[in-house]
Structure prediction request, 649 residues.
Amino acid sequence: MFKTTVVGSYPRVGDTPELQRLRRAIGEFEQGRRSLEELRQVEDDVTREVITEQARAGVDLITDGLIRWYDPVSHLCRHATGFEINGLLRFFDNNFFIRQPVVKEEVHWAGPSVSEEYRFAQAHAGGHPVKAVLMGPYTLARFAKDTHYGDFRALLRDLTVLVRTELVRTLEAGAQDVQVDEPALLEQPGDFPLLLAALRELLDGVKARTCLALYFGSLRGIAEALRELPVTGLLVDVVSRPENLEILAQGAWPADRSLVLGLLDARNTKLEPPEQVAELARRVAGRRPAESLWLAPSFGLELLPREAARRKLERLVECAAFLRRTQR
Amino acid sequence: MILPTTSVGSFPKPEYLTRARTRYARREITRDQLEALERQATEEWIRFQEEIGIDILVDGEMYRGDMCTYFAENMRGFRVSGLVRAYGNRFYKKPVAVARVEYETPITVEWFKFARARTARPVKGMITGPYTMMDWSFNEHYPSRRAFALDLARALHDECLALQEAGAPYIQIDEPALSTKVDELPLAIELTGIVTDGLRARTIMHICYGAFEKVYPAMLDIPVDQLDLEMANSHFDLLDLFRTKPFTKEIGLGVIDVHTHEVEPQDRIEEWLRRTLQVIPKERVYVDPDCGLKTRTVEEAQAKLRVMVDAVRAVRREIGG
Ligand SMILES: [Zn+2]
Prediction:
């Protein structure tokens, strides 16, 4: 019980010159001093490095660190038509910014992204399980600036088709674990029915393990409806909103589906004592089959410095070990 | 004078200073050499503001890197983190609270005095507020956000006293993080009360990227004389909000979008000023850009400031101010 996973991103740059080679490569590429191919090689190299770093820390289910993503929102849009990628927009309440996709015409999938990234990661993980991460259509629609459809539902529908195209390719590439992030839902809980419809379409016929990731916001307002979600797992940030832990402790998520508790603060360098993490995890654990519970940080680790992210992963694994050891 | 003009704080660093900062980071030049260039750039900006006729001057923040880290480096209780990504290929270092945060020594006062000695016009004192410092730092010491922020507020109150002592007639508190977590507005109000407690100087709070509709009119309870707001980048939609419930403080009216390369047409700014004066009495309106101009080029920033001053002059003539 208490296996460990991550939410997605990992710091792509560290504090030594060696760990800043991707930053330099991007700068040099932008100045025309490096070819795209050379840049891709550095991305490959750093991706292998963060895969190894996560595996070495002992995390059970890892990602490729989303090293190739410009940001969580514009990544898929950069591999589609119909968008213009525009100015900076704050990503929720973080001091971290994304580029806003502006919808100029009908949006269509235009080329592989996550599927190829997954293929690469899986090939370099040495047999370690890797999960693929996709930003979900609802959150993409919320962050996009629509100048074409004039109708949120119509935009959401086309974005769902777009994300599904990439998701299907990712499954064809062999992914057995797929995570879909929909953090924007927690800001508009009234849109739950819209999200539900989009997810049903997105995941129709999918046999792989699917996990919906919700972070930064509160489950209040959708707690009763969670069980309707057509996914085999749910990942919840219980750090940003402590009430989420109570909501889950009261059985909001069915015990026969997997639950990933985002219990280690991905937005703070402080390392939580395992005793404290264990105590919180047990509030939810009591009512569930042991194998359905996972531990994770509350969000992707790229809001931390590289060194702090590595320590956070090690602490995550220690917390899981502590829980197993002290199991009652 | 009506519609006094001012700036939010930062101006773009001239190229020689950007280069010098890189060289200083690589230890190719000394701290003294860097500071000499920071003084040169500050003087240039003071002269520019005087020349185009700005009424309340700022030092331009030539000496600051990140707005939180600069203050943290000059307080007790912090270390500086490794690099984290801000967006794209941009990275910065964040403060980390590792012990009790305390005021040690004046942080911005020497720069304030330097600027003041070079102009006869009023100069604003400017600090990063406790809420933003707390929200944008890592915290390895305090048990809660509130406990951390309270110590920051007390430390920054001492900085305000020192600025006031040095002759600052206006003190501005920058709280860009405040509008990102609206449910913590009561905490921000409490913190501001500590920072501004007993000050004789006029106090201003600069807030940006606002979901203001969620915090209005509650934000009028922030204990400062003036709220400085981004108005231009939402095309003055906020005026509608101020019609529903009157804006009871002075307003710092952002009329320049700091995220665009385009220099605003003068008649657009004039029109915004006229519309504002229908909603807020003219005695309470100060005019400035939406936010710091540091992300623009020197030329863009100067052109934008010029057109702002020209627009204000035209409107003053109309209303006889
Ligand atoms: Zn601002």
Summary: The beta strands of chain A are 3-4, 80-90, 97-109, 132-135, 145-146, 177-181, 209-214, 233-237, 258-264, 293-297. The pocket of zinc ion is lined by residues B 8, 176, 206, 208, 291 (CB under 6 Å). Chain A has one domain: 3-326.
